[in-house]
Amino acid sequence: MLSVKNIDLYYGASQILRGVNLTARKGAVTCVMGRNGVGKTSLLRAIAGQQGIAAGQIEWEDRDIAKFAPYERARSGVAFVPQGREIFPLLTVEENLQTGFAALGRSERYIPAETYDLFPVLRDMLRRRGGDLSGGQQQQLAIARALVMRPRLLLLDEPTEGIQPSIIKDIATVIGILRDRGDMAIVLVEQYFEFARDLADEFIVMVRGEVVMSGASGAMNETNVRRHLTV
After folding, report:
1. What is the dotted CATH code of the domain comprising 2-227?
2. 10-residue block means of pLDDT along the chain (231 residues)?
3. pTM score > 0.90 for this model?
């Protein structure tokens, strides 16, 4: 289980996260929702180690990883799919996937066949440069690259952003498959309410760096959640 406890995070003198708590268990999807600028991405960056916290704890598999470097967290099974995808545009699809090898031991440095089962379009594009793919294909590549790392904790930052509806459905199917395997905890940051609602087992809603609602998806009050998502 991932357990984030009372974390504070600052960018310079500006406090971005205030006493944020979150849990994510294997075999479940925890959705983080809120408007733009409320700290959702900062929360994922803190978990992934890309931004240091000022206070609190980040525990993963019974270890406090708050002081771990990003590469140490990756080796501990944490994979991050950032907003905007951040694939390497001049590398081929296959080379982009191989960048996931960095966190693995030599014996594990191969692309699992399941990667292409989940994202069959990538099999036909291995020699194509990442920058030549559509936005939806790049998003699939970014998720596949993370899965090459064999993560036990997968952090997804707004995977539906700028993606055509057919690819959104494919991504939702993949997330459901990964959840149902039972060996991976998934934290999903999302503003698209229907996408989050249909996948969430647990949820939190953030406003101005704080958690204002949380609970099991069955207890989610759609009206109240939507009120915190609309501008």
Report:
1. 3.40.50.300
2. 96 95 97 93 96 96 94 96 92 96 91 93 94 94 96 96 90 96 96 90 94 90 84 59
3. yes
